[in-house]
Amino acid sequence: MIGVMTVHVTEAELARDVRAVLAKVRQGVEVIIEQDCVPVAILKAPQVKGRRISEVIAALEANGANAVVDEDFARDVKAGINAQREPWNPPP
Hints:
The protein is 41% helix and 18% strand. By secondary structure, the protein is α+β, with helices and mostly antiparallel strands. A 3-stranded mixed sheet has the order 1-2-3. The two termini are 35 Å apart.
């Protein structure tokens, strides 16, 4: 991938400041986590597919749609998002 910045951090550096590492990931930096100079994991931002709901609403309005976005709609969207999330259960 052209233009993707990569940084290497140790396991200890990650543990010491996970917020800073995640901030780098949010900026588009690929972070390679190493243990004893051996890469063990790569953190990178997910590839986003689809459109934001605000873009969908703007497109509907631009096309003259008269749909009303009310509290029920917002609740349904939130329920749909939550239904796709699974808790992280790491092995012991």
